[in-house]
Amino acid sequence: MPSRALPALTSSRKSSNVAPNILSRRLKELVDDGLLEKVCYSSTPPRYEYHLTPRGRDFRMVLLALAEWGNRHFAPEGRQMQLVETATQRRVEPVMVDKATGEKIIPGKYAMVPGPAASPLMKYRHEYLLRKREGDSGQKFQPEPYRDASNESDQ
Questions:
Q1: Does the pTM of the predicted model rise above 0.85?
Q2: What molecular function does GO assign, one term (predicted)?
């Protein structure tokens, strides 16, 4: 799969005020986080391009949703970029749907709840917020004191 990241990054570096060291640091962070893969395309001199990983490709949907949200709420002058169907150039509006039913995800019909890997604290917080929304204002939120487990192995 050809990479489109290199031309975009090269042109954005030239057209923005991003210093090369800042761009390099940000690219390294994206590689470290598993969103990009650094690929050597010329050994003499060494030159690299960046390809999206499967994790990075999955993140496109998040970016599309954020772009649509930004266009809706922060672009009074109109859209500067928009999502279009490649074949027809028809503008499309991304929406989130339930994969099983195809129904649009809307507030009130769907809710986030603790999953199988949720910690006891996460489950407690969720239960507390549910009770508070239902009018139980007498309950106090008293989580256990925070302990940084990463420091405990040093001692």
A1: no
A2: DNA binding
Distances from the Cα of 124 to the Cαs of 127, 128, 133, 138, in angstroms?
5, 6, 14, 15
Q: Using an 8 Å Cβ cutoff, are 99 and 91 in contact? A: no
Largest Cα–Cα separation, the chain: 70
Strands 46-52, 36-43: pairing is: antiparallel
The encoded tokens of residue 132 equal 């508070």
Reported as type and span, the H/E element at residue 22 is helix 20-32
Contact 67, 81 (CB under 8 A): yes
Using a 10 angstrom Cβ sphere, with 0-12 exposed, 13-18 middle and 19 or more buried, the burial of residue 36 is: buried
Write phi, then psi, for 60 (nearest 5 degrees).
-55, -40
Residues in the chain: 155
**Where do the domains of the chain lie?**
5-52, 55-94
H/E stretch holding 50 reads: strand 46-52
Torsion angle in degrees (nearest 10) through CA of 139, 140, 144, 146: 140
pLDDT, tens digit (0-9, with 9 covering 90-100), for 20-51: 999 999 999 999 999 999 999 999 999 999 99
Q: What is the pLDDT of residues 59-69, one digit of tens each?
A: 999 999 999 99
- The first and second tokens of residue 55, run together, are 């994790």
